Amino acid sequence: MAETATKGAISIRNVTKIYDPEGVNVMAVDNCSLEIAAGEVCMIVGPSGCGKTTLLNAIAGFHSVTKGEIYLDGDLLCGAGKPIAEQGADRVVVFQSGALFPWKTLIDNVAYGPIVQGVMNKSDARDKAADLLAEAGLVDVGNKFPGEVSSGMARRAEIVRALINDPKVLLLDEPYRAMDSLTKSIMHEALLEVYDRTKVTIFFITHDLEEAIFLGDRVVVMTTRPAKTKKIVDVNIPRPRDYKTLSSEEFRLLVGEAKDAVHEEAIKAFEAGERELA
Ligand SMILES: Nc1ncnc2c1ncn2[C@@H]1O[C@H](COP(=O)(O)OP(=O)(O)O)[C@@H](O)[C@H]1O
Ligand SMILES: [Mg+2]
């Protein structure tokens, strides 16, 4: 049964990020505010180069914000007097594929984090890893190496690894970008299955609007750089969702609504000379 989420609310308040490479200011995010509820799947879309990754990196604690604040469950992550958030097990970044250690079994990959962080001993971490893998349908492959399982299984193991410390928030930056559509849809169902079970808050960047509507509770369309929120599309399609959702009228209409907003921004980005469009 799905839990009701009680943790993982993110509050982004008036965040601005200015990079300063060699004295040339680049404003990546401009006075951006966004409230993400505990247990929400929040999808972020917008033209390439608009500032999406910058926002994710600020939440993760990979770099500072120039102005504004970010809170997690009411606690300040970063803001005035504390420009950079501490990195912590409450926020986990799921990187693009290939992030598993090829020389470790799936169980040892999943158990690795808590062992090196010293929060679990090796035997407890391996037991927990085996349980989580089993819950994700990876019961028979825990002792295999990433190269010995399908890419779909490896990706599922990466998500399991992200969950071992019971994080409040998963941060994903175009994780399925390079995948063919069939593998992608298997990944989506696997992620939704994990979500339905854990109700972890998900902050997910993508350029794929169908992916955004299929997975999200809300889709936040960012403006062309510097990023701020342009439009929020509420996705009131009931869960659990499956591939049949993709052919519903409701789904097509929502994709169209998001597409109109992104397209408008992509044109602006193009006119402003950004190299690549979303
Ligand atoms: N470390 C950095 N130094 C200077 N400029 C950067 C840096 N990282 C990103 N940028 C610039 O900030 C803008 C936003 O980048 P990013 O957040 O990666 O966009 P997105 O993820 O939406 O494609 C881009 O113009 C990019 O070139
Ligand atoms: Mg990016």
Notes on the protein architecture:
The chain is α/β, with parallel strands linked by helices. The chain folds into two domains: 198 residues, Rossmann fold (3-Layer(aba) Sandwich); 67 residues. It has seven helices and ten strands. The strands form two sheets. It has a six-stranded mixed sheet, sandwiched between helices. A hairpin with a 2-residue loop joins strand 4 and strand 5. Helix 2 runs parallel beside helix 4. The longest helix is centred in the last third of the chain and has 23 residues. The mean pLDDT is 91. The site of magnesium ion (MG) has 3 residues, from helix 1.
Q: How do the strands of the widest beta sheet line up side by side? A: 6-7-8-3-9-10
Helix content: 25-40%
Ions, cofactors and other ligands present here are:
adenosine-5'-diphosphate, magnesium ion
Assigned CATH architecture of the largest domain: 3-Layer(aba) Sandwich
Distance between the termini: 37 Å
Counting DSSP H or I runs of 4 or more residues, the number of helices is 7
Radius of gyration from the CA trace? 19 Å
Shape: globular
